[in-house]
Amino acid sequence: MEHTPGTSEIRLMKGNEALAEAAIRAGLQAYFGYPITPQSEVLEYLAVHMPKRGGVVLQAESELAAINMVFGAAGAGARVMTSSSGPGISLMQEGISYMASAELPCLIVNVQRGGPGLGTIQPSQGDYFQATKGGGHGDYHMIVLAPSSVQEMADFVFESFRLADKYLTPVMILSDGALGQMMEKVALPPEGSLPFIEKPWATTGKKPGQKRRIITSLFMQPEEMEEVNLRLQTKYRLIEKQEVRYEALETDDAEIVLVAFGLAARICEKALTLAREKGFKVGLLRPISLYPFPSKVFASLATNAEMFLVVEMNAGQMVEDVKLAVEGKRPVHFKGRMGGMIPSPEEILSEIETVIENEQVNT
Amino acid sequence: MKLPPITNGFEIVYKKPDTLTDTPMHYCPGCGHGVVHRVLMEVVDEMKIQDKTIGVAPVGCSVFAYNYMNVDMQEAAHGRATAVATGIKRVLPDRFVFTYQGDGDLAAIGTGETVHTVNRGENILIVFINNGVYGMTGGQMAPTTLLGMKTTTSPYGREAASAGFPLKITNLITQLPGALYVTRQAVHEPNAVRRLKKAVRLAFEYQLLKKGTCFIEVVSNCPSGWKMTPQESNKWMEENMFPMYPLGDLKVPSQTMN
């Protein structure tokens, strides 16, 4: 397909490949990764294209090594990323905690598969807690964005690098095996459209007359360590204020609001259409930023809607955040599938019918 | 305020290089770390590469190496120094990059990173301080602890049957094609320090060749961990550590570069 520089380009691509191509266009300078299904296409795509277009691709000996290479490259000022799936992301938690503390910007992509343990290679949303609540040791958060289409797999790469640089923090794209593997039309942003920023903290070699630069997460004095924590928490409050993203679909007159992210939200859209055809007033709230969680929107939704139904591909993780946000004002129901199973729109429709029936019986 | 040194009319022939900070070191009396720090930074100073050098500190006694070395530095997670250094060197290939690691860091928790970094032939210098003990955490058994050697976690002496053998990781990585220059040195006497400095100089110069990893093991003492005076520890090191970890070059570039 012809590509005119400076304009976006339409292609049919797998989610993983669209994400990788977007990363190159977003000015990715280094990628460190390790093969794991269902995200290996990211590494494979970059291994083909990065050498031709300038940039480092390195297949590390483990995800543990990969994330620490990301640490080094980020500390040296590069735009850098890695990607993996559940078992590999677990190994990366060490490095993510260190990067959050050392305030290093990077992108980490989790193309989720079913767990726990070695689990399965089928899509899942079982890593929500790990992604949004810290995951590694210590008090920290990453910004977490959840795409629900191949288009968003690409778009969120740009957004993630922008946010990582702005807030000096690791950013995660929390995708899943279906979004990574499925092919869709995607409009790719033009290459070089994401500017680079000055990184006066990066270790690039001590300039004469300037102080040396140190990147560390070690602060032995508790007073100093608390200062670091306070600085991080201030940053997180700012992120919570400024970077909430969600999509609301037909929530204005909705009596029951479905809440779902990523692939589950895609399926809920179809369930919503089916339910509306049957006369149920159903809406959909799709959190896009899982951290910061769009808590505030639930306060206003809870005044009109009668109940919420949270649909996830896990045993019930985001539902805890929804309950906290709804503050007991309305009932919050949950429908989940686990271990790589994907709920069908009909299954969700039937759940909608069940909870409405039960609520009517109860009231 | 910096006062001029009192020279009493004599010429200054030995001074602290600008590549070392004025921060007092936290190392125990008699420990080899301070000497190795100084040797490394003297070479950086003499080669005038302070503005091109980036170091990676480990977890262990030398965790605060960045407080003393006046160059840009990153503090790595335990065992991950060579992975961090790989990340730095790959995006800044014209810089001089080194790691500084102890035996627990490099040869236990970081074995995978060590082996694969050398196997990729990353153009960095790895400085490996081997004192056969975990110094920082209070004298526990290290992978390089000698058989029969008592530590807080091998209180009856290291037994091969339960704790395995002392790991000669330097010999192990010497076999890898990515290793360009591998040498084992010490800092227990002035001549040894001079030999180490020569090795460090070579290792930094070899980085320009982009032909592979340079690896310098420094067999050192740990008076506190070994529960000895500095003098006793040096004697014990010569009698016990050197036979297991003999000093000298294990691999020099002429063998690998034809």
Description:
The complex is a heterodimer of chains A (363) and B (258). Chain A has 363 residues and is α/β, with parallel strands linked by helices. Chain A folds into two domains: 9-197 and 216-242, 3-Layer(aba) Sandwich (Rossmann fold), CATH 3.40.50.970; 246-362, Rossmann fold, CATH 3.40.50.920. Chain A has twelve helices and 15 strands. In chain A, the strands form three sheets. Chain A has a seven-stranded mixed beta sheet, with helices on both faces. In chain A, strand 6 (143-145), helix 6 (150-167) and strand 7 form a beta-alpha-beta unit. The radius of gyration of chain A is 21 Å and the shape is globular. With 258 residues, chain B is of the alpha/beta class. Chain B has a single domain (27-257), classed as Thiamin diphosphate (ThDP)-binding fold, Pyr/PP domains (Rossmann fold, 3-Layer(aba) Sandwich). Chain B has eleven helices and nine strands. Chain B has helices at 33-46, 65-68, 81-91, 103-109, 111-119, 160-163, 169-174, 190-207, 223-226, 230-244, 253-256; strands at residues 53-57, 72-75, 96-102, 125-130, 133-134, 140-141, 179-186, 213-219, 248-251. In chain B, helix 8 (190-207) links the parallel strand 7 (179-186) and strand 8 (213-219). In chain B, helix 1 packs across helix 8. The longest helix of chain B is centred in the last third of the chain and has 18 residues, at 190-207. In chain B, 52% of the residues are buried. The model of chain B has no long low-confidence stretch (mean pLDDT 95). At the A-B interface, helix 3, helix 4 and strand 9 of A face strand 1, strand 2, helix 3 and helix 5 of B. Strand 9 (214-215) of chain A pairs parallel with strand 2 (72-75) of chain B.
